[in-house]
Design brief:
The complex is a heterodimer of chains A (about 375) and B (about 325). Chain A is α/β, with parallel strands linked by helices. Chain A contains 15 helices and 7 strands. In chain A, the strands form 2 sheets. A 5-stranded parallel sheet of chain A has the order 1-2-3-7-6, with helices on both faces. Chain A has a two-stranded antiparallel ribbon with strand order 4-5. Chain B has a 7-stranded mixed sheet with strand order 3-2-4-5-7-6-12, sandwiched between helices.
Chain lengths: ~375, ~325
């Protein structure tokens, strides 16, 4: 037995020593995420003394993040209410994920590209897009309501992970044009199982494209928990196999999310290629208003995450830093209420839709067959109106 | 000057790269090797690796990367190496390439050309010979083009690259080495214009891409049987030229659709349906189809049984109720 045990140990030890000294092992370790998710704040918002290797974002930026998160959450709540009033066809909430929604966006410049999914409505409004235009998809008026080119924000993507390759392509294209802009793709934990996510990381790495893949790991792909999704030690390890610099971050710590996002952006602008961030967070609400989360998760789990609320944590930190007081907090909450009230009012108006628009943008110039079909619908509409 | 279709496509790519800095060519093996069919031969050497480059072996990645590059203002021309190797790119093509203009109300458009060597007749083993045109043609937002002549291969590809919308450019593999007396650059009719390749008075053979030479050979052979056969080449499946097709069928009063793809629910079914919907009173006989069988593409030693040949076309023409006479033709 002793002999066997020794035999078993020796080759492993030798192999490990060889690995750590090889160029491949060195390259791999330079890409690996930290042992624990990067965090700056504890669950109560107190600054932790952990050497993260990331610079703390300026307090003005954190104060702005706080404001955007408070407004974003109020917007999100209003949207869920609008589904109950029949004003939205569906709404996937990001309640609880505000640190990623806001932190991802505030690290970007206006000329950076962004690729949101259906859960990124708060990220899109944080970018400055009009909230009603943001909700066009979910209201069912059209597939995208904002000017995707002007905002450099792709339409909200529903086929999972497909948008991550677009981010790689546009990031490479901008680099080829001599620009130092980056492309940020939002993605969830479930979508890291999709092949396109892997092809995106591979393409981005091969072409050294400044794409950032921000994985909001909220633990569930609708109902399927992460341990049924992957056996990877952590999702951030998926980058290493493709040569992508990777990091894990406490996704409910807005300071940490911003710090790592800012570093990822700089990494891209400096020509070092793509960056994968796994942010550990939690979706406090169900997948959408049509989902029943009690079928797949315990109330105690939700309560546990409530105590890690990103807005409360950042608020506490800013107060301790002297960057937030009751008066300012009240101002921000009033702004959020006004934002929600304006949204409610505007969403109560019935949109005027022109059914003939259905034919306008299939091609730059409609084919003769589409022109004929458009005329057919026009005649049907005329008959209805008579 | 004797030119092959392969040379015409290569020259079209070269001329596009020369004329427009935004054009980039990429795909698997298109760089140093010049493509498995040598269609991109010399492009990397002559234009540099920024303009024509190899990618990782991942078709969805190629397609998605092209979407991103087009969003950044480039005009990607991608090669998906074989018809049946294009399927991993389907989600990108159907959900994004075909829809982005519509989703964004024109804010973002995708001037992408998807080159696909397609269809059979080259003795390829499985997964190398699919007729995949129906999948693309069924998808609104895509244009679907397939040349049958050398001049068209050049001209239609130049037009595809200049088009503001995505174009699936299906290159009949078996015609790569076909030759015509053509000087390049050649300018032929634009998208959406079918061509009468041979005039005739008794029956219209309606065809496109790889099946056009079969239709022409059948028309030639039919002379012996006393039939004057007209051959119409669609050139572009979408946009579709009803007018030229209608004019031919109204003149001849009979129509046979010739496609090498499996017939069931194929492009040929659409062609036949359109003719009977639009030319019913000119028809002396039902529109018949000659197509490949509804089977997975056969192995090389059996493919000749599957592909429509001259005899199958002639047999079908013979079934066109020749004793009957078109209504309203004036004959009685």
């Amino acid at each position: 037995m002793t002999t066997t045990s020794t035999r078993g140990k020796t080759p492993r030890a030798t192999a490990k020593a060889t690995r750590t000294s090889s160029p491949e092992a060195k390259a791999a370790s330079a890409l690996l995420p930290a042992e624990r998710p990067i965090r700056f704040l504890d669950e109560h918002g107190a600054r932790v003394d952990e050497h993260s290797g990331y610079a703390e974002p300026p307090v003005e930026l954190l104060a702005e993040a706080y404001r955007k998160m408070v407004v974003g959450r109020r917007f999100d709540q209003q949207c869920t209410a609008l589904t109950k009033q029949g004003r939205l066809a569906v709404y996937p909430s990001s309640h609880g994920q505000e640190a990623c929604q806001v932190g991802g966006v505030l690290a970007l410049r206006a000329d950076d590209w962004m690729f949101p999914t259906y859960r990124e409505s708060v990220a899109i409004t944080t970018r400055g897009v009009d909230p009603v235009e943001t909700l066009t998809l979910l209201r069912g008026d059209w597939h995208c309501g904002y000017d995707a080119a002007a905002w450099r924000t792709a339409p909200q993507c529903t086929p999972l992970a497909t948008q991550t390759i677009h981010a790689a392509g546009v990031a490479y294209g901008e680099k080829r044009k001599g620009n130092d802009s980056v492309a940020l793709a939002f993605i969830g934990d479930g979508a890291t199982s999709e092949g396109d996510f892997h092809e995106a990381m591979n393409f981005a790495a091969v072409f050294r494209a400044p794409a950032i893949f921000l994985v909001q790991n909220n633990g569930y792909a609708i109902s399927v928990p992460l341990d049924k999704q992957t056996q990877a030690p952590a999702l951030a390890y998926k980058g290493v196999g493709y040569g992508v610099r990777s990091e894990r971050v406490d996704g409910n710590d807005p300071v940490a999310v911003l710090a790592v996002m800012l570093a990822a952006v700089e990494h891209g602008r400096a020509g070092h290629g793509p960056f994968l961030i796994e942010a550990h967070t939690y979706r406090m609400d169900a997948h959408t208003n049509a989902d029943d989360a009690t079928r797949y998760r315990e109330p105690s789990e939700v309560d546990d995450w409530r105590s890690k609320d990103p807005i409360a944590r950042l608020g506490a930190y800013l107060r301790a830093a002297g960057a937030l007081d009751d008066a300012r907090d009240a101002e921000i909450k009033a702004e959020a209420e006004a934002y929600a009230a304006s949204l409610r009012e505007r969403m109560n108006a019935d949109p005027v839709l022109n059914p003939l628009d259905l034919f306008e943008h299939v091609y730059a110039t409609p084919t003769p067959q589409l022109a004929a079909q458009r005329a057919q619908l026009a005649a049907e509409l005329e008959a209805e109106n008579q | 000057m004797s030119t092959t279709m392969a040379q015409a496509i290569n020259t079209a790519l070269r001329d596009a790269l020369k004329d427009d800095d935004r054009v980039v060519v990429f795909g698997e093996d298109v760089g140093t090797l010049g493509g498995v069919f040598r269609i991109t031969d010399g492009l990397t050497r002559d234009f540099g690796e920024d303009r024509c480059f190899d990618t990782p072996l991942a078709e969805s990645g190629i397609m998605g990367f092209a979407i991103g590059m087009a969003m950044a203002g480039f005009r990607p021309v991608v090669e998906l190496q074989f018809d049946a190797f294009a399927y991993p790119a389907f989600e990108q093509i159907l959900s994004h390439v075909a829809k982005l203009r519509n989703r964004t109300r024109g804010a973002l458009s995708l001037p992408i050309v998807i080159r696909v060597p397609f269809a059979g007749g080259i003795g390829g083993v499985e997964h190398h010979c699919d007729s995949s045109e129906a999948y693309y043609a069924h998808t609104p937002g895509l244009k679907v083009v397939t040349p049958a002549t050398v001049a068209d291969a050049y001209s239609l590809l130049r037009e595809a690259i200049n088009d503001p919308d995505p174009v699936v450019f299906l290159e009949p593999k078996k015609l790569y080495w076909s030759k015509d007396e053509v000087s390049l650059p050649a300018q032929t009719a634009p998208f959406g214009k079918a061509e009468v390749r041979r005039e005739g008075t008794d029956v219209t053979l309606l065809s496109y891409g790889p099946s056009v030479p079969v239709a022409l050979a059948a028309a030639e052979a039919a002379v012996e049987d006393g039939w004057s056969v007209e051959v119409v080449d669609l050139r572009t499946i979408n946009p579709y030229d009803d007018a030229t097709v209608d004019a031919s069928v109204r003149k001849t009063g009979r129509c046979v659709v010739v496609t090498e793809a499996s017939g069931f629910a194929g492009v040929g079914a659409e062609m036949a349906a359109r003719v009977q919907e639009r030319c019913f009173h000119s028809l002396a006989a039902p529109v018949l189809r000659v197509a490949g069988y509804d089977i997975p593409y056969p192995p090389p030693k059996l493919e000749h049984h599957h592909l429509p040949g001259v005899d199958r076309v002639l047999d079908t023409i013979a079934r066109l109720q020749w004793d009957d006479v078109p209504m309203g033709s004036g004959a009685s």
